[in-house]
Design a protein that fits this description.
By secondary structure, the protein is an all-alpha fold. The chain is built from 2 helices and no strands. The protein has one domain (2-48). Helix 1 (2-18) runs antiparallel to helix 2. The protein is rod-shaped. The two termini are 29 Å apart.
């Protein structure tokens, strides 16, 4: 998931340089969504922690 987030982040940065038009707006939106989901999953995994095997 982080590789997809990084890819869309790079696409969003390049498109920001050229101006947000067409596909660039979609890539920026997808990058934001993937980043938020990955951040939430990381926080949850840190909060739950690793449980010992039974």
């Amino acid at each position: 998931m982080f590789s997809w987030a990084i890819a869309f982040f790079i696409i969003a940065l390049v498109s920001a340089i050229f101006g947000f038009t067409g596909l660039a707006v979609s890539a920026a939106g997808i990058a934001k969504i993937i980043f938020v989901v990955a951040l939430i999953l990381a926080v949850v995994s840190f909060a739950v922690g690793r449980r010992p095997a039974i």
